[in-house]
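Sanity check record (used in CI):
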Amino acid sequence: NIGVSAQGRDIPGLRVGVHPTNNQVENPPKRKTVLIFGGQHAREWISTSTVTYLAYSFITGYGKSPSITRILEAFDIIFIPTINPDGYIYTWETDRLWRKNRQPTNLRFCQGIDLDRNFGFQWDGDHSTTAGNPCSESFAGDRPFQAVETQQLAAWAQNETEHHNVDFVALLDLHSYSQQILYPYSYSCDDMPANMENLEELAFGLAKAIRVGARGHNYEVLSACEGNSILSASSSPATDDDTDASTPSRHHFLPRIVPSGGSALDWFYAALSVRFAYQVKLPDRGMYGFLLPREMIVPTGKEMLDALLYLGEFLGETFGVEGLGV
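Expected output for Inactive metallocarboxypeptidase ECM14:
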């Protein structure tokens, strides 16, 4: 249990890994751990189902898939399907396109804080002034870590590193939509991460692993500050990459640089020193947007499984794990 939401719901997580049977080692090294979560934004259902699919695949694949077996013997993976259970339930029961959590604000008729604007690193660092507008769907809160869920996740992660011998080496923060793999920083395009070359190398590897898979989707690799996009007023013909043959047309994107402070991506990278931290925006590119059909759940899970297997191999090579490497 990662913590409790603003409305008192549990935030469950699942740790999957195979530890050495010899428990007599004094001062064992920290266990290298990959953290994968979804559902920061309530309406992004595909992120929650994809985390669940990945967890199922790794649990059932251990002992059957050599790649999964090797990865789980070398690393722990923690899966958190949704950070925002209150908002998620609200999208099922009341408003399908709700984004924020359901925490009260200083305006009774405008509830909720955008969790991915409320972490403590460079909170409102983009000077977007969303901190002063509780009615905005990107409301950053009145202060960092005001949202109960961001408090709980950050406290849990820090406790894991300080008291439970955990070394978070990679983060996948799943969102939708756009088909993008984004690396720090989100708050500014002027500041570059110290290991940007390594971040880009892995990101392009993840994108390739997805592209050569069964569906062949293309994912852009960008700095997170460049990751926001807007739909153009026009549309272009459908392509095999962007849609199924049954879909009539698609909108295309025009890039728009909209930095945003207080992101989970930046906080885990900068405050918790997670070396390989990414925000992944899942399909599609605007045909269905947040209302992705259920038929896309398993294909999206499969392409992210390809990416996660590549991530495990890359980390194995990076950290010198025998039997793992790309």
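Residues 229-257 have pLDDT under 50 and may be disordered. If this sentence no longer matches the regenerated tokens, the check is flagged for review.
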